[in-house]
Amino acid sequence: MTPQAPSTSFASDNTSGVLPEVLAAISDVNSGPAIGYGDDPYTQKLRQQMDELFNREVTTLLAYGGTGANVVGLQAMLKPWEAVICTKSSHINIDECAAPEKFLSAKLIDLESEDAKIKPEMLQKEIEVLGIVHHAQPGAISLTQSTEYGTLYSIDELKELIDICRRSGLRVHMDGARIANATAALGLSVAEFTCDLGVDILSFGGTKNGMAYGEAIIVFDKELATAAEYIQKQSAQLPSKMRYISAQFSAMLENDLWLKHASHANMMAARLADGLELIEGVELTQNVEVNAVFLKLPAQSKRLLQDWSYFYDWEQENEVRLMTSFETTEEDVKKMLDGVRWAIKGSTTDGC
Predict the structure, then answer these.
(1) How far apart are CA 335 and CA 90, in angstroms?
(2) What secondary structure letter does DSSP report for 296?
(3) How far is the CA of 322 from the CAs of 114, 239, 265, 347, in angstroms?
(4) CA angle in degrees (0–180, nearest 5) for 7-274-347
């Protein structure tokens, strides 16, 4: 008998709706006029909140989405002959339709990594070409926190990589599409693993954590701020009615709402992983550190399960990704586990 599917989707945290507090914030700023392009009081409030969050004065720019935020941040760092070091599985390399290459006119040096993290030895090897005119010169590194495989850089790992960058003259970009999940999982302030370590520009995600749309570009290095502002406009990432993005972020930062919901998503993923480990025929392929669970299933089971409640295939054969969000409930987790057992039993019964 086919079990009942979850009421929420495990395909992505992008499939979730919008937090009630965020919807209310949008409605609250929708009365009366406000000067556009960031000169409104709501954006000024957000900038103060970001300064407080990072314990320093930062430049807060807002963009429509993550791809735009990444392009603006990276372009502000690079000279025309420079390249960006990233992992092969990074979002800028795989999931942004070559937008970085197109708009940066820069090479992405994409490195193979089983856990989607750049290792110091990998970075050291790539910077051996510095000073050789025949090679694109590494000018920046892009670190994803948490990574596309749901893994986390520790403070020590980040410090070692950033120290190498500093000695070699590379800028440091962090893609924080899921920065809330990373912050909640690490149990640190967001400043401790970004600006305190020497990150130059951070793409601060909100959409995957319950906002309707919008990402922030947080510029820590004052030397890059002016360039980022002009590039933001030139890249069509300067929203005119900025108050609607600012209000969303302000609501998220109020009383640490962003961390509350990210912690919930992380906890649901941990419960899902615990249950999956008890099911014969399931193999977890990565440590579950935030709100992403990667696993391998028998091919027939995978097809049955995807038809029942859709999710995405991943990189390895028969590998899939299950994502949790602020909307995921314990009942949803239970139903997904029931579905996995049903799919595996069904494929075995069919002799597959």
Answers:
(1) 31
(2) E
(3) 18, 32, 12, 20
(4) 70
- The answer to whether position 7 is within a domain reads no
Q: In whole numbers, what is the pLDDT of the chain averaged over residues?
A: 96
pLDDT of the residue at 315:
84
Is residue 18 packed enough to be buried (19+ CB in 10 Å), middle (13-18) or exposed (0-12)? middle
Name the residue among 231, 176, 183 with its Cα closest to residue 201: 176
Sign of CA dihedral 242, 245, 246, 247: positive
User: CATH no. for residue 210?
Assistant: 3.40.640.10
- What is the distance between the alpha carbons of residues 88 and 137, in angstroms, rounded to a whole number? 18
Query: Are 242 and 331 in a shared domain?
Result: no
Q: Output the DSSP codes for 98-141.
A: THHHHHH---EEEE--TTS---HHHHHHHGGGTT-TTSPEEEEE
Decide if pLDDT at 351 tops 50: no
Q: Which residue has the tokens 């993550």?
A: 66
Cβ atoms of 244 and 26 within 8 Å: the answer is yes
Q: Which helix (H) or strand (E) segment is 207 a member of? A: none
Query: What one-character DSSP code corresponds to residue 314?
Result: -
Residue 103's φ and ψ, nearest 5 degrees, are -85, -25
Residue 205 phi/psi, 5-degree rounding, is: -80, 145
Residues in a beta bridge with 61: 217
Q: Is the pLDDT of residue 122 over 80?
A: yes
Q: What is the CATH number of the domain that holds 262?
A: 3.90.1150.10
Residues 72 and 194 in one domain: yes
Residue 317 — pLDDT band, cuts 50, 70, 90? confident
Give the number of other CB atoms < 10 A from CB of residue 171.
Answer: 25
Question: Residue 57 is encoded by which pair of tokens?
Answer: 């004065």
Which pTM value belongs to this model? 0.96
Domain span holding position 262: 257-349
Same domain, 222 and 294: no
For residues 240 and 265, membership in a common domain is answered with no
Strand 312-313 vs strand 319-323: parallel, antiparallel, or unpaired?
A: antiparallel
Number of domains forming the structure of the chain: 2
